[in-house]
């Protein structure tokens, strides 16, 4: 991961390592992000192109600068306009309909809560007896938990995303304050 004072974030991760001793066989995922500005209005409806990514990463230190500069011409670039919403209670039609994962609480950069939601949902259904009132209660309990948990995470991830794209706030971000933990 690298952060540029201009508010650009760059990421490189190895996604396929067929031969650990031969780096030329490895495949990488590169990601570049920045805050949308008024200047970006013109690309609002169009995808960001490879030239734009190269331009935004040209002043990074290596390996980020070269990794982006050397991306072969014609490589597809996928645009993701980072969005989020705060979950609010919804009408679950007496427990017959509910939401989970991104549909319930879309977040900016974070670890997904979708799997935790599914675990809670299954646990809620397991405690339920086969009658309509119990179904409604079980689903309402499930929703209360995911709306509170998901809502908190939406707020934190939004704050962190804002901070890592503004140099002056970066040092105060949860990422810098608490760190990114290596898990493998
Ligand atoms: C670029 C990117 C990188 C990410 N990286 C990470 C990461 O490293 N770690 C992490 O934990 N999370 C990551 N996330 C977040 C994670 O991918 C999501 O939180 C997770 O996939 C949400 O799961 P979901 O099942 O709720 O939604 P989704 O995975 O979006 O699944 C919804 C499914 O519903 C289908 N669908 C939509 N509309 C309809 C319809 N009308 N009828 C039928 N099917 C429909 C879609 O095709 C899709 O298959 C990343 C997200 C993005 C966009």
From TrEMBL:
Cofactor requirements of the protein: FAD
Question: InterPro entries of this UniProt entry?
Answer: FAD/NAD-bd_sf (IPR036188)
Tree of life domain: Eukaryota
Q: Which Gene3D superfamilies match?
A: FAD/NAD(P)-binding domain
**A molecular function GO annotation:** monooxygenase activity
Q: Where are the transmembrane segments?
A: none
> Which keywords, in A-to-Z order, does the entry hold?
FAD, Flavoprotein, Monooxygenase, Oxidoreductase
Q: What is this protein called?
A: Monooxygenase
Query: Whose protein is this, by species?
Result: Letharia columbiana
């Amino acid at each position: 991961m690298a952060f540029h004072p201009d508010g650009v974030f760059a990421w490189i991760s190895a996604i396929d390592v067929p031969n650990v001793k031969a780096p030329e066989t490895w495949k990488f995922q590169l990601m570049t992000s920045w805050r949308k500005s008024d200047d970006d209005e013109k690309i609002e409806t169009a995808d960001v192109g490879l030239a734009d990514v190269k331009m935004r990463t040209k002043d990074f230190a290596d390996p980020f600068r070269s990794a982006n500069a050397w991306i072969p011409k014609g490589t597809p670039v996928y645009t993701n306009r980072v969005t989020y919403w705060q979950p609010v209670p919804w009408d679950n039609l007496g427990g017959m309909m509910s939401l989970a994962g991104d549909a319930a609480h879309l977040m900016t950069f974070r670890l997904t809560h979708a799997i935790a939601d599914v675990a809670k949902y299954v646990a809620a259904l397991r405690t339920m007896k086969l009658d309509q009132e119990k179904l409604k209660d079980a689903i309402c309990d499930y929703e209360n938990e995911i709306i509170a948990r998901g809502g908190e995470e939406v707020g934190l991830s939004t704050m962190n995303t804002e901070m890592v794209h503004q140099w002056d706030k970066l040092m105060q971000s949860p990422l810098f304050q608490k760190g990114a933990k290596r898990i493998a």
